[in-house]
């Protein structure tokens, strides 16, 4: 990995380089995505089936678009001699327990004069979950998207995922979805799946919100349908930043950087450290690991494009860099990681200590692994139960409570030139109207 002694100029260049990975910079795909969205909006199932045949080479129609109970049973039988089902169930327990702590409840506050104020928390009715297919199947993403929706109390959860050429869905994906509690699974992927969930077709109902990761076409489609439905975020490529000092284990650090770099060629892996000695050792270990790992070609391109070892003079400077980059995953492996954590303002998920490696969060610990990318951790949060509920304000006043403030409300309304607003209050206490 390249080693850079960081200064203001190099930091600016690196931040600019990282932002090139944002879906906001892929305008060349917009026309293709919009064509798909409009076609599905106008032609429904017909367009969905045609795109599935074109892109996935699968013969999907109204009779086989829904995954059947028999297909789910077949998936369990396929994994019968695998330990994956037991692992999925253990992970579900941790994920559910973590997200249950996020639940919010309606509240009401009443006063003796008859004033009642409050907040009503209501789960969304219908949610669509996108799950990638094709070469990569991620049962863990299935769990991370469905379980918080279930905990929130969503009525109906519909999952879409691209089928293989044989018209089947990855067994691990099906088992994970069934264990997590999905209601219906549809064999459709890509921008056409997002369009179907956003607008509805003869086979697929329109939902209130779409969540889940996908390729650039999926990301741009989600961005385009925002407003017709809600979305979780427009996710970019995966990323990790490790903040380390001279006390950290270079072998562990190198392994953790590569755990994200292997996702795809656009993934980012960055070490920020105060130790040049550590930087050199980590670079050596990454080269050694890359030569032995199965996704060598992807790792090499990822590191060449967006891999950096940044050396700074002080820990405070390292913390500042981490806050500027606002990484999706941030590992802190320093002498006092909890102390450093208190100074971190921007990160999707924070991993503390040398035994809290990023894959722990991806699969098993419980916190959600659907995280803000491309610097959006400065203003976005991980996927949570909050994403699957909405809140309504509750206001109830008695005559006794309203009368003392009625004149104040009328003055405010008249100051804004809204006399009908003022009149709405006035008529309740002034009977001298002529008809």
TrEMBL record:
Note accompanying the cofactor annotation: Binds 1 zinc ion per subunit.
Residues bound to substrate: 238, 260, 263, 329, 362, 416, 421
Enzyme class: oxidoreductase
Gene Ontology MF, one: histidinol dehydrogenase activity
Cofactor: Zn(2+)
Keywords assigned: Amino-acid biosynthesis, Histidine biosynthesis, Metal-binding, NAD, Oxidoreductase, Zinc
Record keyword Metal-binding present: yes
Reactions mediated catalytically: L-histidinol + 2 NAD(+) + H2O = L-histidine + 2 NADH + 3 H(+)
EC number(s) per entry: 1.1.1.23
Active-site residues, record numbering mapped to chain: 328 (proton acceptor), 329 (proton acceptor)
Residues annotated as binding Zn(2+): 260, 263, 362, 421
Residues involved in NAD(+) binding: 130, 192, 215
SUPFAM superfamilies xref list: ALDH-like
Recorded family membership: Belongs to the histidinol dehydrogenase family.
Its biological purpose: Catalyzes the sequential NAD-dependent oxidations of L-histidinol to L-histidinaldehyde and then to L-histidine.
PANTHER family for this protein: HISTIDINE BIOSYNTHESIS TRIFUNCTIONAL PROTEIN, HISTIDINOL DEHYDROGENASE HDH
HAMAP family for the chain: HisD
Protein name: Histidinol dehydrogenase
Species whose genome carries this gene: Eubacterium album
Gene label: hisD
């Amino acid at each position: 990995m390249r080693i850079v002694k960081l200064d203001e100029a190099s930091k600016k260049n690196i931040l600019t380089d990282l932002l090139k990975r944002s879906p906001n910079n892929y305008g060349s795909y917009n026309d293709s995505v919009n064509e798909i969205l409009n076609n599905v909006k106008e032609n429904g199932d017909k367009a969905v089936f045609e795109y599935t045949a074109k892109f996935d080479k699968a013969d999907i129609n109204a009779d086989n678009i829904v995954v059947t109970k028999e297909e789910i049973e077949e998936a369990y039988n396929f994994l019968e001699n695998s330990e994956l089902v037991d692992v999925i169930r253990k992970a579900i327990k941790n994920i559910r327990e973590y997200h249950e702590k996020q639940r919010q409840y309606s509240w009401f506050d009443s006063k003796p004069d008859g004033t009642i104020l409050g907040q009503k928390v209501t789960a969304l009715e219908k949610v669509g979950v996108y799950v990638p297919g094709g070469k990569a199947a991620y049962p863990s993403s299935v769990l991370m998207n469905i379980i918080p929706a279930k905990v929130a109390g969503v009525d109906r959860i519909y999952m879409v995922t691209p089928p293989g050429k044989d018209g089947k869905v990855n067994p691990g994906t099906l088992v994970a979805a069934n264990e997590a509690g999905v209601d219906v699974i549809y064999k459709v992927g890509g921008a056409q799946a997002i369009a179907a969930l956003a607008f509805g077709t003869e086979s697929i109902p329109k939902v209130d919100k779409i969540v889940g990761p996908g390729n650039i076409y999926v990301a741009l489609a989600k961005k385009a349908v925002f407003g017709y439905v809600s979305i979780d975020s427009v996710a970019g490529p995966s990323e990790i930043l490790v903040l380390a000092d001279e006390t950290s284990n270079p072998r562990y650090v190198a392994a953790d950087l590569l755990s994200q770099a292997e996702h795809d060629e656009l993934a980012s892996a960055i070490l920020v450290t105060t130790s040049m000695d550590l930087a050199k050792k980590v670079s050596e270990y990454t080269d050694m690991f890359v030569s032995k790992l199965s996704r060598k070609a992807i790792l090499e391109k990822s590191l060449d494009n967006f891999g950096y070892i940044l050396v700074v003079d002080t820990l405070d400077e390292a913390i500042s860099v981490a806050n500027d980059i606002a990484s999706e995953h941030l590992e802190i492996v320093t002498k006092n990681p909890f102390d450093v954590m208190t100074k971190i303002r921007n990160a999707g998920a924070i991993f503390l200590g040398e035994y809290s490696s990023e894959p722990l969060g991806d699969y098993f610990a419980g916190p959600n692994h659907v995280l803000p990318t491309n610097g959006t951790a400065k203003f976005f949060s991980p996927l949570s139960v909050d994403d699957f509920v909405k809140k309504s304000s509750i206001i109830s006043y008695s005559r006794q409570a309203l009368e003392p403030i009625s004149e104040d409300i009328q003055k405010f309304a008249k100051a804004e030139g809204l006399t009908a607003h003022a009149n709405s209050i006035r008529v309740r206490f002034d009977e001298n109207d002529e008809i």
